[in-house]
Amino acid sequence: MASFQERGQNGRVNETILQSILGGTLRAVTYAHPIVGLKDGITRAQEILTRFPGEDGNMHTVGELLEDLTLHPELRAQLDLECVGAVFAALARKPITDHLLFVNLHPTTLEQPVFWDRLQPWVWDLPIPPHRIVLEITETWAMHDLDRMESFARRLRGMGLRIAVDDLGSGSASLSHMARLAPDFIKVDRSLVRDVHRHPYQAALLNALALFAERMRVGYIVEGIETMEELQAVIDADVPWGQGFIFGQPEPLLVQ
């Protein structure tokens, strides 16, 4: 999938595209991407993603927009709310009842009262129990107040939702920060998976995390698996679940 920022200059946010998204001119399209059990090859969960149509005819991600530090936190939260709301609306119309469902959430959004105002109705409208929803909080949460993040995590769990730390290993958070959040799932970033079959240290680290996750009864997912060599190395490291293009591209959840 392409990125909107590929069209910008020096990584600056394309304000026209941003306002088109927030104004409803560009509407989110939801996709599902499988998370697979590596021992049996069975799909165990789905990550529900959002994409937006561009003028070039391609579907685009908004990840770089959400991470752009020049973007005002309130605008970032509005953009994230647009994406999260689209996911919950799609799941309300076409529920996936046989898998866990992972939904991305930017840490800044947790700071916004409007998120909490909307979250409970979103959860009530779902025809599936809330414990099937796993909110993926990107690793940049470690840049925020940890006490507040722990409070937010307790509040989410109080609603029956589960929590995943996303992009572990991308550089923002330490393992001690992750331990304070005590997530139900950890998702390892592609940076630790790329060419892992050529790098014994990476493989050993993936295996160490597998042992930790097993002992703590935490779900453990490695993202970004793209080649057979990477897949075999991840399996050899005793990683239970995997995700990546080797299992296929994200598929539209609904006909929009």
Q: Secondary-structure map with pairings?
A:
Blueprint (H helix, E strand, L loop, with lengths): L1 E2 L11 H8 L6 E9 L5 E11 L5 E3 L1 H5 L5 H21 L6 E6 L1 H4 L2 H13 L7 E6 L7 H13 L3 E7 L6 H7 L3 E4 L11 H17 L2 E4 L5 H9 L4 E2 L8 E2 L4
Parallel strand pairs: 1-4, 3-5, 5-6, 6-7, 7-8, 8-9, 9-10
Antiparallel strand pairs: 2-3, 2-10, 2-11, 3-4
Helix pairs in contact: 3-5
Description:
There is one protein chain. With 256 residues, the protein is an alpha/beta fold. The chain has a single domain, classed as EAL domain (TIM Barrel), CATH 3.20.20.450. It is 38% helix and 22% strand. It has helices at 15-22, 63-67, 73-93, 107-110, 113-125, 146-158, 175-181, 200-216, 228-236; strands spanning 2-3, 29-37, 43-53, 59-61, 100-105, 133-138, 162-168, 185-188, 219-222, 241-242, 251-252. It has an 8-stranded mixed β-barrel. Helix 3 runs parallel beside helix 5. The longest helix has 21 residues, at 73-93. The protein is globular and about 50 Å long.
